[in-house]
TrEMBL record:
Domain (PurM-like C-terminal): residue spans on this chain: 202-354
Protein name, UniProt field: Hydrogenase expression/formation protein HypE
Signal peptide as annotated in the record: none
GO terms, biological process: protein maturation
InterPro entries the record matches: HypE (IPR011854), PurM-like_C_dom (IPR010918), PurM-like_C_sf (IPR036676), PurM-like_N (IPR016188), PurM-like_N_sf (IPR036921)
Family statement: Belongs to the HypE family.
Residue span, PurM-like N-terminal domain: 78-189
Originating species: Phytoactinopolyspora halotolerans
Matching CDD domains: HypE
């Protein structure tokens, strides 16, 4: 966490006592990056204040805090929580969307809100049943844009087969909300074969990726800064619940971890899992699919695609004996047609992720400390 410190200079000749230390702390954009600052915000500020309320809670370093109810296998690094209600296990997740700009190639804030929340439920093995939707609208926001975004929400929900069942709207003063913010909550029923947690990766597990990375982050950056990549690159935002269900149908308990690598990109997701499971992860960097226009944009801008946000792919840790079956199931679903195996879990260097490069060297893949691109979702 960034700490700004101010002190008064002491003149020894005057014999004066130093002024009291003045310390101020401020939230930075980097605290919403999905990287190390986000993790520190959860660990050092939010969780200690909640106290006993977090004893059975999952806390996501990307900014969400989720209670895990009676689900003892839930890790403190999950996208959603599992509530054991006796007859059925319920999966619930809440997320907020503040993306800038509101409209971009391949989607908008409405579609992103629906897909993002469905995917968080799916990553814990949940079959999404319904969504709640809350709008925070700035005074003066064009009604035409609101109609367009609301229509996009409805279309995305219908295509996913997950209805919006309740909601709310509030209007705030000009300058208080930057147009429109959306908060969504998703609820689902955990599939019988699902026992997923960031803490369940095991040495030997295969690391599978459902498709190309870094498309969403490059799209947002291009739209925001007018970089002109929009004609070649579009956001990958899409629902992943059907893909996740197909994977679980293929191998059940052999799928140990699922995660959609949104803020902080694939690098953050892999590091979170490695740390939660106390294992090492090794990936083959050339095996990670990066579309040519995205790779060119990242090279031009000095970005590592592993750190760039995604909204329509997932990474999974799977028992090696069933990896081929799960990979085949992934490729049978439109959201996983380009699925690949990108690495494996090792017992060495627990909590650390490394990548084998094209020339045979090995480099450390760390989480970003601060923000690379704020307001990404």
């Amino acid at each position: 966490m960034n700490v700004e410190t101010a002190t008064e200079t002491v003149d020894p000749a005057q014999g004066s006592c130093p002024a009291p230390l003045t310390e101020t702390e401020r939230v930075l954009l980097g605290h919403g990056s999905g990287g190390q600052l986000s993790a520190s915000l959860i660990r050092d500020v939010i969780v200690p204040a909640l106290g006993d309320a977090t004893k059975l809670a999952g806390t996501d370093p990307r900014g969400e805090v989720h209670g895990s109810g009676g689900a003892t296998e839930t890790s403190p690094l999950e996208d959603a929580a599992v509530l054991g209600l006796g007859v059925v296990d319920v999966v619930v997740s809440t997320d907020s969307f503040v993306v800038s700009p509101l409209f971009f190639s391949g989607g908008d804030i409405g579609k992103l809100a629906v897909h993002g929340t469905i995917n968080d439920v799916a990553m814990m093995g949940g079959d999404p049943l319904g969504l709640s939707l809350a709008f925070i609208i700035e005074e003066g926001f064009p009604l035409e844009d609101l109609r367009r975004i609301t229509a996009s929400v409805g279309e995305a929900a219908r295509e996913a087969g997950v209805p919006v069942v309740t909601g709310d709207s509030k209007v705030v003063d000009r300058g208080s909300a930057d147009g429109l913010f959306i908060t969504t909550t998703g609820i689902g029923r955990r599939l019988p074969a699902a026992r997923l947690s960031a803490a369940l990766a095991r040495p030997g597990d295969a690391v599978l990726l459902s498709g190309p990375i870094a498309q969403h982050g490059v799209t947002i950056l291009s739209a925001r800064e007018g970089l002109g990549f929009d004609g070649d690159v579009a956001s990958d935002t899409r629902p992943l619940h059907r893909l996740a269900a197909a994977m679980l149908d293929a191998a059940g308990g052999s799928v140990h971890v699922m995660r959609d690598p949104t803020r902080g990109g694939l690098a953050s997701a892999l590091n979170e899992i490695a740390q939660a499971s106390e294992v090492g992860v090794v990936i083959d960097e050339p095996a990670v699919p990066v579309p040519t226009p995205v790779a060119a944009a990242c090279e031009m801008l000095g970005l590592d695609p592993l750190h760039v946000a995604n909204e329509g792919c997932l990474v999974a840790f799977v028992d090696p004996g069933d990896a081929d079956a799960v990979l085949a199931a992934m490729r049978s679903d439109p959201a996983g047609r380009q699925a690949v195996r990108i690495g494996e879990v090792v017992a060495d260097h627990p909590g650390r992720v490394t990548a084998r490069t094209l020339i045979g060297a090995e480099r450390i893949v760390d989480m970003l400390i601060g923000e690379q691109l704020p307001r990404i979702c």
